[in-house]
Design goal:
By secondary structure, the chain is α/β, with parallel strands linked by helices. Helices cover 36% and strands 18% of the residues.
Length: 598
């Protein structure tokens, strides 16, 4: 194996090109010759490329190190997996006339398609990375060396940015032809590619139409694979054919979620899970996303194990499950959900996210021997007034918590509050913050633009409620925790946690018991996705109908739970306020949400 144009090329391909191009001087003539050999149109773009290749195929020791493009989300599909996908499609009686690979990489899906679909008449591939363009061309020639055939499809290999390529004109031209869109788009987000200064990005836009605040705080970030998937549906949803992409599970979930609004003409939606560690040596949950085009819109997706599906031709494995839309609700396990859908409604109290500061090394501190120490191991003294105990997701492991290992500085009581008072009233805290002002000013999120110095977010009246019910947004296994005060001050939570704030400890305890009930846990398991970046979000938690749960809770059982609770944690929670608790929630459940704190 050697390299030309930074692309791998076998000695067999090199020898074939050397033999057939030896006396050719014009690239147009060379292109005609290569088209006869393998069906590739416009193999060379100019005479310079032809001359370069002719010179370098004569050099036997032309080997350079291959760059690692994994940071660009470039996880190349191995030929075995590509062939397995092609076999899976062939077993579904798919017989495409046109095959489109919008990010073909080293061309393994194109090679697998040449082998599996001999009746294909045209293959169109797009790839931005020039060495992969050449390697794919060389691999196609190698395929025909190993598999001589008279009938060859026309193969168009395009060196192009996928986001600028005109797929819609292809869809119009071949609207009546059986079409297969297949591939493995990059497994990376737009913000990550942007940080790498990549040109392979769509025109910057808030394509999901998030609100300004949501877009600024992360929801404007999206997966490139998701964007390309939606591009394909925009172009080909009315084409006769099928779609099969290897993508992250989160992409499939998002596409099915958005299908309710977008209503693409796609059906038979399937998620076939793969072992990403085995196939790509990466710890990301991924699957083959398959569907039929030009068909009545469907809003649920059936999940299978890919390997079981392709193992037996005549005996299919049973589905792992089905997720998607049930009426107006999006759920992760439809069969499980129907048993608990009666408590999927609207929470009467508003869930909030914890403190956001984006500067843990400065704002998260520990108390050691009467001093404070930050993440940079700097030791200092502070006034206690603005210092509060802080809990992070990893701290929420107990049912009741009244002590913290970390502390934080609360510079504001509400978002946007002027912070100039700190310099006058708390000089030690001001000096500490001012000493680190450069790091505050370097915070990347645009939410801090034009805000007072040392601003934080996720702060409001609810942050200072004496009692809180909280849950981590990050972990698959969960318990709701009751957060008490520490040193007569409310405990704060970071922005990986979600909370309800209460002025009344009895109401907080009732809520805790209801939320930790088996019925609540079953509902959450049926509407959350374990492979999501955040298992729990505000949107998920707001679906818990606390009023309905409380209304149907056994009073005897509640009293028993309270007695155990008081005994275990040495508290004095009374059941006398239970009816008041129900009355408080009842009108709210029908009209608007109520805050239980000032």
């Amino acid at each position: 194996m050697m390299k030309i144009f930074e692309a791998n090329i076998s000695y067999q391909v090199s020898d074939l090109l050397k033999t057939n191009l030896n006396k050719i001087k014009l690239f147009e003539t060379a292109n005609h010759k290569i088209f006869e050999i393998c069906g590739i149109r416009n193999f060379f773009n100019n005479n310079k490329e032809l001359l370069y290749l002719k010179e370098h195929i004569s050099i036997t020791q032309n080997i350079i190190e291959e760059p690692d493009r994994a940071e660009y989300g470039d996880f190349q599909t191995n030929i075995h997996l590509a062939k397995s996908v092609a076999v899976f499609l062939k077993e579904k009686k798919i017989n495409p006339k046109i095959i489109i690979e919008p990010t073909f990489g080293k061309g393994n899906f194109i090679i697998a398609s040449l082998e599996a679909f001999p009746n294909a008449e045209k293959i169109i591939g797009v790839e931005i990375y020039k060495p992969y363009v050449w390697e794919t061309k060389f691999n196609i020639i190698q395929f025909y060396i190993d598999n001589p055939r008279d009938k060859k499809p026309v193969i168009e290999i395009n060196h192009f940015n996928v986001f600028d390529f005109d797929f819609k004109s292809i869809a119009i031209e071949h609207s009546k032809d059986e079409t297969l869109i297949v591939g493995n788009p990059p497994w990376i987000t737009n913000s990550k590619l942007s940080s790498l200064e990549s040109d392979n990005l769509p025109v910057k836009s808030n394509f999901k139409k998030h609100s300004g605040y949501d877009a600024m705080t992360g929801k404007g970030n999206f997966d490139i694979g998701e964007y390309i998937t939606l591009m394909m549906f925009d172009a080909f949803q009315n084409s006769k054919g099928h779609f099969a992409f290897l993508v992250k599970n989160s992409v499939i979930k998002n596409v099915i979620f958005d299908q309710k609004q977008r209503r693409y003409n796609i059906s038979d939606l399937q998620k076939l899970t793969i072992d990403s560690k085995k196939e790509f040596n990466v710890s990301v949950e991924a699957a083959l996303f398959f569907c039929k085009l030009n068909s009545p819109s469907e809003f649920t997706c059936t999940e299978f194990n890919f390997y079981n599906q392709t193992k037996l031709i005549n005996q299919r494995n049973l589905p792992i499950g089905k997720f998607g839309w049930v009426k107006e609700k999006f759920v992760s396990n439809i069969d499980f959900y129907v048993r608990y859908s009666d408590i999927d409604g609207l929470c009467p109290f508003e869930w909030r996210q914890g403190i956001k500061h984006d500067l843990s090394s400065i704002m998260e501190i520990e108390r050691i021997n009467g001093h404070f120490i930050n993440g940079l191991h700097q030791e200092f003294n502070l006034e206690e007034d603005l210092v509060y105990g802080l809990l992070k997701s990893s701290d929420l492991k107990q049912l009741v918590i009244d002590k913290t290992r970390k502390y934080t500085i609360i510079t504001q009581k509400k978002i946007g509050q002027d912070t100039s008072f700190i310099k006058k009233e708390f000089p030690k805290i001001f000096n500490y913050l001012h000493k680190n002002k450069t790091q505050f000013d370097s915070r990347k999120s645009s939410i801090y633009n034009n805000k007072p110095a040392f601003s934080i977010f996720g702060i409001g009246d609810y942050s200072f409620a004496p009692y809180k019910i909280s849950i981590s947004g990050l972990y698959k296994t969960f318990t709701f925790s009751l957060i008490l005060q520490q040193d007569n001050k409310p405990i704060m939570l970071d922005d990986t946690c979600y909370l309800l704030g209460f002025d009344d400890i009895d109401y907080a305890a009732y809520t805790l018991i209801i939320l930790n009930s088996e019925k609540t846990k079953a509902l959450l398991q049926s509407i959350t996705f374990s492979d999501a970046k955040r298992t729990f979000t505000k949107e998920i938690l707001m679906r818990i109908d606390l009023y309905n749960l409380a209304l149907h809770s056994s009073k005897i059982n509640m009293q028993q739970e309270l007695e155990k609770f008081n005994k275990t944690f040495k508290l004095k929670i009374s059941f006398k306020k239970w009816n008041d608790y129900l009355s408080l929630m009842k009108p709210v459940a029908k009209h608007k949400q109520m805050k239980l704190f000032v």
